[in-house]
Amino acid sequence: MTSDDVGDAGRRHDVGDAGRRDDVDPVPPPADMTPADIELLDVAQRLLLRVWVAGRHEVATALRTPDGAIHTGVHLEGSCRRSSICAEGVALGAARAALTAGEPLTVDSVVSVQIKPAGRFRIIAPCGVCRELISDYSPQTRVWITGVDGGVTAMDAIDLLPEKTRRAW
Q: Do 86 and 77 form a contact (C-beta atoms < 8 A)?
């Protein structure tokens, strides 16, 4: 893969490695996505292009913390499903590892992507467990999702879980 294969969020990508996806169309950023969140989208898409393996690594996440740092994660599929780890959890762990002792984990925005069988990227919502995890640490996090109507929108993490039980840590 050359540097030309991984461009900005609006360029078509060619993966080309054996077993990888060819000619993957990027997600067009929605009009209301900020430049900082477009950067997250681009980072997640480039990461997934680099590591995608069918059935093993099919989701990538990029998140931004208030200091502007971007942390990434990749889905790790395990042979017994329970051992699988979502990209969002990996990215949250990386963000937490970058903090000093006692500093709370706060996240501004999260973008997760997968490659659809039609050779297009798609922004995806976190699974239920990851919704819980993100909202446990940072309920105000802006999470980009593709809604049931196919439109891409952002929601606060806490709003992805109606009637969530809130724990006092």
A: no
